[in-house]
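ok so dumb question maybe but i'm new to this and my supervisor (M.) told me to 'just get the structure for Mediator of RNA polymerase II transcription subunit 18' and walked off. so i did the thing. is this what she meant?? sequence i used:
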Amino acid sequence: MAQPLSTAIDTAFKSNIVPDQEYLLQGSILDTSVEHLLHRLRGLCDNVDSGPEQFQDHEMCFTIRTTPTPLSLRVRRALDHTDMPWQLRYIGQPEYGDAKRPTIIRSSIDIGCSASVVEFLTELGCRMDFEYLARGYMFRKGRMKITVAKIVKTNPNKSQDSMQLISESYLVELSVLAPRGQDAIAEDMRSFAEQLRPLVNLDKVDYKRLAHGPP
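this is what came out, is it supposed to look like this??
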């Protein structure tokens, strides 16, 4: 009998078959100030001559009920590059550690797949919780990836041009995918984030605190 999906993923991590971890810092910047941030990033990042890569992605977030906690999966497709494969992604629970840890660390698996992945997940019993569009710019600095994205609420009854903006700001993310045990990359990320102050404050985001509010 085949293993449940959650068990297979857990076994893969314990066996170091897929050793990737994502190191992550997040922040936001108002629409009125985003051009200043883009200008700063052009000067700091590797793709200075060609400029940042623009992207427009559609992301769907699914959950499947497992024991003891639900399993979350994400499906992303590039709307501006329809020839690219779809991406199925598993993201583990964030590891915050002590207050001195520079970044969030979470387990991550990325798999290229076909457009039938949505039907496949539905057949497995997954339920789509929400979906959104992310439009913006991507920069590279060594192993670090920096995205500056506008989050747009999807509406199946309207065209993309009339979809609703979530806020009057851009989501800024600094991330690195690296093998386990390479925690030194977090210090490099903190140093890079300091160069973006005071335009944007990239920090560890405590999702549980956001969900429950201040004490």
